[in-house]
Amino acid sequence: MRMIRNTLVVSLAALVLAGCGTADRYYLLTAAGPAPSGGGRGIGVGPVSVAEYLNRSNMVFQSGGNQLEVAENHHWAGDLEKSIASVMAANLGRELGTGNVQVYPWDRDGELSYQVVIDVRQFHGSADGGAILEAGWRVYSLPGSRLVASRSSTLQEPLERDGFDALAAAESRLLMRLAREVAGVMSR
C-alpha cells in the first residue's frame, strides 16, 4: 500500500512539473445527479467560503507533511466557492427530495426553511493517494436564523486512478458524502 501511495504522489508531482509546457486543462465538480424538479422544502446553500490556500483557479495537492503543490496547468473550470455551493445544492436536493434549493445570494428568506453555511478548510489531493475534505458547517432554520446544528466533518476518498480528473471525481464524491451528513440533520 505504501508503494502505491508513493507512486501516486510521484505521479501527481510529475504531472505538476510536466505541466510547464502543456496546455491548460479544466475540471468540474459534479453532483451525484440533478435535484428533483418542482417544489418542496426550501433550502438555501451558502455562503460557502474556502481556505485562502484554495482560493485560486489551480488545483492543489499535498505532496507530503506540510508541503502543498499547486498544479500550474490544471484548473477548476469556475470559481471554487460557487462550484461547491452549486454541487452541494444539487446533492442536498437529491438527498431531501426537493427541487426548491437555492444558492446564496437569494432574493428572499421567506421561501426557505433552512440555510446551510459551509467553511471549507481543506479540499485537495492528499499524500496518501486520495482526496480530503475538511469543512465546518452550520444549518439554520428560517425565518429567524435559529441555529439547528453546527458541525465539523473530515472526509477522505481514494482516487480511482492517477491524475487530476480522478482527483476532481474524488472531490465530487466527498461533496456527496458531506451533503448526506448535512441532510441527516435536516431530516430529523
Textual characterization of the structure:
The protein has 188 residues and is an alpha/beta fold. It has one domain: ABC-type transport auxiliary lipoprotein component (Rossmann fold, 3-Layer(aba) Sandwich), CATH 3.40.50. The chain is built from 3 helices and 8 strands; from the N terminus they run αββββαββββα. The protein has helices at 2-18, 80-96, 164-186; strands at 25-27, 43-50, 58-64, 67-76, 101-103, 114-126, 130-141, 146-158. A 5-stranded mixed beta sheet has the order 5-2-6-7-8, with helices on one face. A hairpin with a 3-residue loop joins β6 and β7. α2 (80-96) crosses α3 (164-186). The protein is elongated and about 50 Å long.
